[in-house]
Design goal:
about 80 residues; mainly alpha; Non-ribosomal Peptide Synthetase Peptidyl Carrier Protein, Chain A; 3 helices
Length: about 80
């Protein structure tokens, strides 16, 4: 799976959970500032990502996801390790 495919899937998860049109979600957007996703909502987003990709994101890692790209990179690195 490519990082572009992961980005598109994460955009769709964000759209489904937060009602933000996936066409308006860019990789360099900040989760809190640009997309108005709160810390609590980020936890829900991470849970959905964990379920989608069958990975575990440590709680202490959550604060490092500032931009959509940070989450895409993390998923890309971790799903490709398990293949």
């Amino acid at each position: 799976m490519t990082d572009t495919e992961i980005l598109e899937e994460i955009r769709q998860i964000i759209e489904k959970q937060f009602g933000i049109d996936h066409e308006n979600i860019e990789e360099d957007m900040e989760l809190d500032e640009d997309l108005n996703i709160t810390d609590l909502e980020i936890e829900d987003l991470l849970a959905a990502v964990e379920d989608k990709y069958d990975i575990k994101i440590p709680e202490d890692k959550a604060a490092s996801f500032i931009k959509v790209a940070d989450l895409v990179s993390y998923v890309y690195e971790h799903i490709n390790k398990s293949l």
